[in-house]
Amino acid sequence: MTDYNDELARYEEAAEDQYDDFDTGFEGLEDGYDEEDDDDGYDDYDDEDDEDDYDDYDDYDEYEDEGAYDDDGYDDYTRATIGKIDPNDRTLTVVVTNKSGAAAEAVIFGGNAELPQPQGVTVEIEESSHKEVREESKSNPFKIAGMKYSVSSPLQFDNVLRIERRTAAGSKTTRVYQPRNATSPQNFTQSLIDDDNFEMDVTGQDAMRVMVEDGVTAVFTFTIKARANLGNLLKGHNVAELSRAPRTTGLPQLDLVRRRRPSALGLRPKRRRRRRISRRRYVRRPIRRVSRIRKRRRRR
């Protein structure tokens, strides 16, 4: 057993001499391989030079004062960053007049298609022009929530409104709106319909068609509830803008209800959360009074 242990010890020593000495390299290869003579075009990096190179590029503080990107100047898309629409800048008054001698279909909006109006039919925007509204709907789409529809002849209400969305690929969807469904005893005038539930998204793809009788003038008063303002991108703000003022109807009982913020842009009105009262019962532990005799003993 002694000879066997001695032989194992000799093998271990020989293995350590050949492979564990990393400073001198592998034995048997020292004569044929020299690190100084190995010049293959790649110089070894010096640690000091390497640190100097990193010092030139690691100092990011120098670039902050040179107009770097500032995260604090740009708001995130949350409820607090949505802009506000001026209450005096949220109304569109569309006047449609037919003097063609027969019933004709007028086209409102439809910025992408830009279809011409039938002969004798005019569509005007009191605040600006129909062309400006069409062009603005392409870049800054908006959402209509609420409509007042007044006509010179009550028979015009029998004609439905067709809301169409047409894409450049050829797909087309049509929704039909019947103004008579919005009539109520609170609308005292027979030539006026006020519908607060009317909603429509106005983009370059959307258009509204209405058949106008001969010699009839129809006036649509739309209320803009939300819109996209791409000019806010230049300021680094949210592009969405929301009207926070309620839409007035002249009826006190309805205006009081409509003062609550309606939902738009996927946002819901804030609700007050009630504080939950915990029903845990806390039992006070009796206080242990230390006698004066024990206090004296502790002091001693």
Notes on the protein architecture:
The structure is a single chain. With 300 residues, the chain is α+β, with helices and mostly antiparallel strands. 18% of the residues lie in helices and 25% in strands. It has 5 helices and 11 strands. The strands form 2 sheets. Strands 1, 2, 4, 5, 8, 10 and 11 form a 7-stranded mixed beta sheet that branches. Strands 3-9-6-7 form a 4-stranded antiparallel beta sheet. Strand 6 and strand 7 form a beta hairpin. About 13% of the residues have low confidence.
Average the pLDDT over all residues and give the rounded result: 76
Count the E strands. 11
The N- and C-terminal alpha carbons lie at a distance of 72 Å
Largest sheet: 7 strands, mixed
Q: Which class do the helix and strand fractions yield?
A: alpha+beta
Low-confidence stretches: 25-42, 57-77
The value of Rg in angstroms is 41 Å
**Number of helices, counting only DSSP H or I runs of 4 residues or more:** 5
Categorize the overall geometry.
elongated
Helical amount among residues, as a percent range?
Answer: 10-25%
SSE order, as H and E?
A: HHEEEEHEEEEEEEHH
The fraction of residues in strands falls at 25-35%
Nutshell version of this structure?
The chain has 300 residues and is of the alpha+beta class.
Which characteristics define this entry?
7-stranded mixed beta sheet; 18% helix; alpha+beta; 300 residues
Topology:
Elements: H1 2-19, H2 47-58, E1 83-84, E2 91-98, E3 104-109, E4 121-125, H3 130-139, E5 142-151, E6 161-166, E7 172-177, E8 192-202, E9 206-212, E10 217-228, E11 240-242, H4 252-258, H5 292-299
Parallel strand pairs: 1-11
Antiparallel strand pairs: 2-4, 2-10, 3-9, 5-8, 5-10, 6-7, 6-9, 10-11
